[in-house]
Amino acid sequence: MKTKRDDTAKLYDEIYKNAAMGAGTTKHLLETERGEEMTDSLKKQYAEYRSICRNAEISMRARGGEIKGYGRMKKMMTDRGVSLNLLFDNSDRHVAEMLMNGSTMGVINAEKSTGKYSGAEKEAKELMKHLSDFELSTIENMRRFLS
Question: Is the pTM of this model over 0.70?
Fold first, then answer.
């Protein structure tokens, strides 16, 4: 039987995975040559994703649990995917498209996870909502690089 504690732990883990994926991608992109505006945007995004990861970790530890997150292989595959994508087009416009696609997937994951773990505590749901709102703001922020 599913408990509120189980749902809360699973939702925090999903929050962490989602934010860690964003942090990893933005960190990887910061290691490439970018325009000043894109670099500033990436730095802000990276800081927010890391903050969300820390909040999920702290909340999980306070409940006596531990974040599982993604394994090394998943992280490596993501980095390679980003690198391969940049080989074809390294422009800030293309980076904006990549980030918009990733953030859209993040919003979808947030919605699905919130529904799946509907018994989670209010604080976990609020952090997931914050992450989803941040992903939506990232999509909006990246639109300016498309023209």
Answer: yes
